[in-house]
Design a protein that fits this description.
This protein is of the alpha/beta class and 220 residues long. It folds into two domains: 162 residues, Alpha/beta knot; 43 residues. 29% of the residues lie in helices and 20% in strands. A five-stranded parallel beta sheet has the order 2-1-6-5-7. The protein has a two-stranded antiparallel ribbon with strand order 3-4. Helix 4 packs across helix 6. It is elongated, with a radius of gyration of 22 Å.
Length: 220
């Protein structure tokens, strides 16, 4: 079982998503496990504060290292874990990385908020810096949920069929279902004729070409 440990001030922001649909069933069947650790439960501050003003000035607040490290220590315990630190200068997350991470037993996600997490946390934990794209979000919770979703798909038994993995089947960027002809606002949109022929070899070849070539309109 792959155990995801999420250090977050706002677990309620992603918990419903992780409990729903495929990921929810994966947890129920013990293929994966998700645990949350709120830094506010680990701070030494008597008022429960975990955000501090940044040295050197600047807008916003920075999450203090002590509370984050104590939460991480609780998550890690004596296990050998992979720690992920979300950062705009991190390695771009991709499908091969998801497949590799799915082989781990425990993964800890450090979810920043406000202006981020004290940089010493990443150094102390020897965490892997990862970016989910060339943009900035208000917190690390959405990146954590995205990684959990992508990684879990490679865990055996999480998907109903192994061929559901995009990399292991011939797929096209466009998929269709009934009706054969969709009437919408005075126009008709048809399913590509090749998909109605029942000729599996030709259909698979069509999918391969669509996957390699530029995206075309549904009428194509």
């Amino acid at each position: 079982m792959l155990h995801f440990h999420i250090i977050s001030l706002f677990p309620e922001s992603i918990e419903p998503y992780l409990k729903a649909s495929i990921l929810g069933r994966a947890q129920a069947s013990k293929k994966i496990k998700v645990s949350f650790y709120d830094p506010k439960d680990f701070t030494r501050d008597r008022y429960g504060r975990v955000d501090r003003r940044p040295y050197g000035g600047g807008p916003g607040m920075v999450l203090e290292p002590d509370a984050i490290l104590r939460a991480a220590q609780k998550a890690i315990g004596k296990r050998k874990v992979e720690v992920i630190f979300f950062s705009t200068d991190g390695t771009q997350f991709d499908e091969p990385m998801a497949a590799k991470l799915s082989k781990k037993k425990d993964i800890v996600f450090i979810c920043g908020h406000y202006e981020g997490v004290d940089a010493r946390v990443q150094k102390i934990l020897k965490a892997k810096k990862i970016s989910v794209g060339p943009y900035v979000l208000t917190g690390g919770e959405l990146p954590a949920a995205s990684l959990i979703d992508a990684i879990s798909r490679f865990v055996p038994g999480v998907l109903g069929k192994a061929e559901s993995l995009e990399a292991s089947r011939v797929s096209s960027p466009d998929v269709y279902t009934r009706p054969e002809t969709l009437a919408w606002k005075g126009k008709k949109y048809k399913v590509p004729p090749i998909l109605l022929t029942g000729h599996h070899a030709k259909i698979e070849e069509w999918k391969r070409k669509r996957r390699r070539g530029p995206h075309k309109s549904p009428e194509a």
